[in-house]
Amino acid sequence: MYRSARLKVGSTVLVFAGLLSATLGPARAAEASRATRLDPPADLRVFLELLREKYRFPALAAAVVDTGRTIAIGAVGLRKNGGTQEVTLDDLFHIGSCTKSMTATLAARLVEQNKIQWHTSLGEVFPERRTEMHADYHGVTLEQLLSHRGGVPSDLQPNGLWATLWRREGTPREQRLRLLRSVTARPPTTAPGTTFTYANAGVALAGAMLEKVAQQDWELLITTQLFTPLDMTSAGFGAPGTADQEDQPWGHTRTQDVLTSRAPGPMSDNPPAIAPAGTVHCSIVDLAKYVALHAHGNPHLLLESSRLRLHTPVAPSRYALGWNVVERPWGGGQVIHHDGSNTQNYTSIWIAPKKDFGVMVATNVAGTGVAAACDQIVGALIQQYLSR
Fold it and tell me: Please, are residues 90 and 288 in contact by the beta-carbon 8 Å criterion?
């Protein structure tokens, strides 16, 4: 999911910041906001429980990172609305389109290893498919696909492609090749390189390019190149959990005041064909490790020049490589953001690289009012932990 980043710390958020101070206590809140690298993370559970009840979320998790470490974290609520099992810090939340920046980060790693370049094109990676591709796709580059400027359609419903992908025929890699063949057989929706068109399929094609040059499935690539180096042991793909158990957070949809749970399973998430665009799940603990990479950097994993490139908008839009880019005074200027949803879960990440600071919120519900509520929670945490 993509939406224009609108978070602005204002009067409403100040109310929630006051609530955070009240729930922690003035002394604890001040101490938490001055956390050092030796301090344990502040416990956000009391604060999050008040907000979870206010917004009627089944479960809610959040974390704050500063100078490369987690300084505040918590997870509250139930794995299933009406159920009995409470969530823990180890529980898995589906992060939806926040996966896109992970695929871009994987691409940066492979660029550093000289396995591919940002300007490498579809035609160069798939020469055997050039004759079946529309000629306008031959020169579409890795960077254009990751920045949604490759002319790839946002809607895969026409011609029955989306329905075909839902059948999940073949391996995930074969499904992505089927997507590649079908999308590129027709003319791009816009001239490549000219227009921003948010498209899950474009990032999926970028994932297929990475698979081809590395000769490994995207799922294995991102695990070995990103999750393992970051010690993100909880990271996986698809809707987490078991259909007949409450062993992980179930997804929920909310339409007005009606909350409906959805049992985990293959049909409870996007098809693997677009996995590089939005199927990762992980714990809030591990998500914080990833956010810290982009907020603070880690030269052993990602060159600073690569991190800067990932955060730099690709003209003519304000979208970078997996990140929406906006200017915010609280972030010292440029901040990066993305949210994600598979229509049953919602995650929001905000990072101020100039402040070495990041905030993330995750919940197992999507729909009416969820995005706005998550913005308020993120804003309160920014106000508390960045205003010092």
Answer: no
| CA 362 – CA 96 distance, rounded (Å) | 10
Cα(303)–Cα(240) distance, rounded to whole angstroms? 32
Residue 63 parent element (H or E): strand 59-66
Dist. CA 82–CA 66, nearest whole Å: 35
Arithmetic mean of pLDDT, 296-315: 97
Task: Read off the pTM.
Answer: 0.93
DSSP, res 226: I
**CA–CA separation, 194 vs 148, rounded Å?**
10
By the 10 Å C-beta count (0-12 exposed, 13-18 middle, 19+ buried), 186 is classed as: middle
DSSP letter (8 states) at residue 154: S
Give me the amino acid identity at 210.
Answer: L
Element housing 125 (H / E) = helix 122-125
In a 3-state reduction of DSSP, which class is residue 126? coil
Give 64's strand partners.
Answer: 72, 359
What pLDDT, in 10s, does the model give residues 200-258? 999 999 999 999 999 999 999 999 999 999 999 999 999 999 999 999 999 999 999 89
DSSP one-letter string for 170-218: S-HHHHHHHHHHHHHTS--SS-TTT-----HHHHHHHHHHHHHHHTS-H
Q: Which among 74, 136, 70, 137 has a CA at the least distance from the CA of 361? A: 74
Residue 14: φ, ψ to 5°: -60, -35
The mean pLDDT of 284-303, rounded to a whole number, is 98
192 touches 139 (CB < 8 A)? yes
Which residue in 243, 242, 220, 224 sits closest to 232, CA to CA? 224
Residue 344: which of 370, 373, 324 has the closest Cα? 370
With beta carbons less than 8 A apart as the criterion, state whether 77 and 71 touch. Answer: no
